[in-house]
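step: validate -> pass
step: tokenize input -> pass
step: predict -> running
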Amino acid sequence: MKCPNCGYENLPGADQCEQCLSSLTRDDVPQAESGVERSLMEDPVACLLPIRPLTVEPHTSLADALELMRNHHIGCLLVTAKDGSLTGILTERDLLQKVALEAPRLEQCTVEEFMSGAPETSKPDHPLGYAIQRMIVSDLRYLPLIDESGRPNGIVSSRDIIAYIAKNLIQRS
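step: predict -> pass
step: emit ->
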């Protein structure tokens, strides 16, 4: 049975989604009452037109990572292992809360020392509401999108969601 919340394909007869733990019983499945609700429940995260993320390896120097972020005017870098799988994320928040307090020599530090490991992720085909819920619950500004192998293939930000809602949902109402 496909979860109406996150789209995960569960075993038939399951009461709860194995991925997002939502109830799969018919009585508990929310029904959209408006176009906005329907859009949040049915539009995939891919409708936000996610950008291709910039990635670095864990051993990248913090100085190089900061320069990459500054040169590309972006607020985060995804950290990947040698096989390309996502292992962490380095955000502006990490830099302010971890790096700024310690004032280390940036050339001597690595991304791995300051990144947030095992970040929340979504898949491009997950419902938009699922991505919003993950970002709210985990207090995130950036949500990496991964493929079936755990490799990053996009990233969306809270700004992307706000712009989508303002352009596509509020104007429709």
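step: describe -> Strands lie at 55-56, 76-80, 86-91, 116-117, 142-146, 152-157.
step: cleanup -> pass
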